[in-house]
Amino acid sequence: MTEPVLSIKNLKIALPEGADRDFAVNDISYDLYAGEILCIVGESGSGKSMSANATMGLLPDLVRPVGGEIIFEDTDLLKLSEAQMMDLRGKKIAMIFQEPMSALNPLMRVEDQIAEVFEAHGLLAPKERATRAIELLTEVGIPDPEKAARAYPFQLSGGQRQRVMIAMALALEPRMLIADEPTTALDVTTQAQILELIRNLQEKHGMAVMFITHDFGVVAEIADRVAVMQYGKIVEAGTADAVLDNPQHEYTQKLIAAIPKLAAEASEETAGKTPILEVEGLNKTYVTGGGLLFSKPRIVHAVNDVNLTLSEGETLGIVGESGSGKSSVGRCLVRLMQPDSGTVKLAGHDMAQLSGEALREARKSIQMIFQDPYASLNPRSKVGRIIAEGPMAHGVSKQEAYARAVKLLELVDLDALAIDRYPHEFSGGQRQRIGIARALALEPRVIIADEAVSALDVSIQAQVLDLLAELKERLNLALIFITHDLRVAAQICDRIAVMQKGRVVELGPAHAIFNNPQSDYTRTLIEAIPGREKELAAAG
Amino acid sequence: MADFWKRFARNRGAVIGLAILAVVILVALLAPLLFPQSPWRMVQRPFLPPFSMDQYPLGTDALGRDVISGLAYGAQVSLLVGLVSTVAALLIGIPIGALAGYFGGWVDDALMRFTEFFQTVPSFALAIVLVAIFQPSIESIIAAIAIVSWPPVARLVRGEVLSLRSREYVEAAILSGQSNLTIILRQVLPNTISPIIVLASLMVATAILLESSLSFLGLGDPNLMSWGYMIGAARTVIRQAWWLSFFPGVAILLTVLALNLIGEGLNDALNPRLARRGK
E strands along A49-128, which residues? Predict the structure, then answer.
């Protein structure tokens, strides 16, 4: 085999004192060869980004490498001075990041940002830089490159911004590209396009690509070789096929098993059951701008004539990409947002018309679980208080409310002692359990889970999904599950509503949606799920 | 708490500031014990230079009053005015800011226009007018300083509340049926405390400066010895007796500097993510 482009040997990176472990990465070694894509996979906190950051010399101040070497073109990158590193960055090794909006300068036109890459290395005349910028934008497949070059980052979509980032990374034809979760912030269809683009460019330029991700679906799409990381160590490494089809290490097996399967089972008919929530003709528009005399207001139809029914004990999935209006529907249902028109009948009462005391009373039976386990719990309240607050606001005595909080904590598999602790003492998954306990505290009949598991690692996600399914069964809850992740929807939902641009484009039993999608949009969505082909091949 | 102290102590200036403030507080508390006689009492010949008599180390003023005793009693006045007026300003500013930020709409408009009304008038001029109307006394000075210094508090709290009220835990509280008052007091305000504490420490410093300026102009409480009054009384004789304005000036400088340093340290300790790195 040829010489590796990058060779990491026994790298050790120390964390500052007081961190949960001593080393961010502990004695890891791997090689990266030209013309291959190496995926580094791991859950949050596994140290998967650390070796890449060390390669680029981008480690945070308090984190420093204490052992090993990173060999690139016969030099140890850890020994280079900052000036030498600057010369290397961009020219020989380039990097793209997760959030293209914050990685681009919001006040600079795209072409100037690309030209800046040449300028930083003192290459090309200003005129050539501009032409080269257009060439690069063409190469990364941006529609209308001339126009995109004159645009500011906020005028581009997320996928286009990521393409600009890739164009900048390619500008100096680096030998190696580091991609740190480059598609995590993107919609599934956009993600599929970006993955394809990275794959094509890598083949065309013969680059070595280090691709860091948490998503095994993405790994299946793109990787040649895989390294799985846990607690700062590489627990398993090998070719993509070997690791995905025949994982050796227990942790890899657990991770792969935790990925929700794409096949939805045919569930029992829910038609005979009594509907608990009926939504008819729901509309919500946002009007922005139009403050000045001559500017036209921009009207966004976030929810456009949506009709849904939810039976007792049923799970209805609302699936869509960002901006499809799926969260707006959820918020209209609980009246965190006032719908423009339409009725929301909850056990006979029209939620959309209630106000004041009646609304407060009606909300007891419809509660919500939020997306962000960090933002959804008040950092200055103890867990017991967080759960007991709702019942107390409805006149339950403090003692009884706290007693109920203890029971609820046990119900969501948390220790009763948690009651006296603050949210920051818990992990993301545990916090989400606290959020679920809070939603259950008022004994609701309907729960709306708005992206309730999307911020969680895949193994934690599986646990929380199991818990939700179990609670639903035990308490006879009806669940509206809002998600962008079709795999999750396939696992938990009885019926699925697919939303696009504020409209429900398809509504039906989950297995029908997956096996026989009727609308074009649903078909595109399903085809874009990363790792799908591999799964289909494995299944049959 | 130990963690908080560790982050605070990392800023060396803040620790120095805390030490200076501790000395000032100690002197203020012990003034009646150290100097049992009234600071207004004439004890020696006028214009006694500093360091010439052990009993009066900082000399005497134009009427033969002990300067060091005046400084000690002045510390009492400065700290009292600084603290009480800041608390009063917080009591006005926090509710206004919280209501404006939480309810938005016309409530916000009305309260913010009201706030701007106070902001557009130069604060020192307004303070002079208020004290002049109400007769100079320690109460009227405190009230005047509080009235001119609450608008920044209201603006800060409003901004914080605006960003906090769309947090998911506030939405969860709305869904669980809590009243607006409970939500403001329980969910929103506790999370605005850090920036308020930082602002308050700086406001104490500003209040001390304002009080000194008022006293300098002769609008201080005539029954209380204060640093500003001492400088004001000494300004006509600054060429003959430099020490009369110098020592009170240093006292004001050190106290205000100490409070500013503490404010910066609190900011580092309470907002660890904003703390400047690499120091």
Answer: 64-72, 75-76, 93-96
The verdict on pTM exceeding 0.80 is: yes
Q: Which residue numbers of A have CB closer than 8 Å to B's CBs?
A: 61, 334, 336, 360-361, 363-364, 367-368, 370-372, 375-381, 386, 389-390, 393-394, 435, 438-439, 441-442
The CA radius of gyration of chain A, in Å to the nearest whole number, is 25
Q: Do B175 and A336 touch (CB under 8 A)?
A: yes
A21: left (phi over 0), alpha (psi -120 to 50) or beta: beta
- φ and ψ of A274, to 5 deg: -75, 135
Q: Contact A210/A38 with Cβ under 8 angstroms?
A: yes
Instruction: Name the minimum distance, in Å, from the CA of A300 to any CA of chain B.
Output: 21
Residue of A82, A337, A378 to mutate, interface with B, max B Cβ within 10 Å: A378
Mutate to test the interface with A, among B3, B175, B196, B270 (most CBs of A within 10 A): B175
Question: Smallest CA–CA separation between A60 and chain B, in Å?
Answer: 10
Question: Which chain A residues are closer than 8 Å to B277 by Cβ?
Answer: 61
Write out chain A residues lying below 8 Å of B176, CB-based.
363, 367, 389-390, 393, 438, 441-442
Alpha-carbon torsion angle A144, A150, A155, A158, nearest 10: 60
Are A188 and A525 in contact by the 8 Å Cβ rule? The answer is: yes
Q: Which residue from A368, A371, A372 is spatially nearest to A448, judged by alpha carbons?
A: A368
**Which residue of chain B has the CA closest to A375?**
B168
The alpha carbon dihedral of B189, B192, B197, B200 has a sign of negative
Distance CA A165, CA B70 (A): 67
Order the strands of the A23-32 sheet from edge to edge. A23-32, A6-14, A64-72, A75-76
pLDDT range class, residue B277, cuts 50, 70, 90: very low
pLDDT, tens only, A40-87: 998 888 888 888 888 888 888 778 888 888 998 888 888 888 888 888
C-alpha–C-alpha distance, residues A434 and A431, integer Å: 5
- Return the SS3 of A280: strand
Q: Which residues pair with A500 in a beta bridge?
A: A503
Tell me the pairing of strands A495-500 and A503-509. Answer: antiparallel
Residues of A in contact with B186 (CB under 8 A): 378, 381, 389
Separation CA A297–CA A286 (nearest Å):
10
Buried b / exposed e across A233-269, counting CB within 10 Å, b at 16+?
A: bbbbbbebeebbeebeeebbeebbebbbebebeeeee
The pLDDT tens digits for B72-125 are: 999 999 999 999 999 999 999 999 999 999 998 999 999 999 999 999 999 999
Q: Are A375 and B168 a contacting pair at CB < 8 A?
A: yes
Cα–Cα distance for residue pair B224/B72, rounded to 1 Å: 12
Per-residue exposure over B46-61, b if at least 16 CB sit within 10 Å of its own CB, e if not: ebbebeeeeebebbbb
Pairwise CB contact (< 8 Å): A371 & B168? yes
Q: What angle, rounded to 10 degrees, do the helices at A428-440 and A458-475 form?
A: 20
Tell which residue, A334, A428, A438, A336, has the closest CA to residue A381. Answer: A438
In this prediction, residues A101-129 reach a mean pLDDT of 87
Tokens of A429: 């998954």
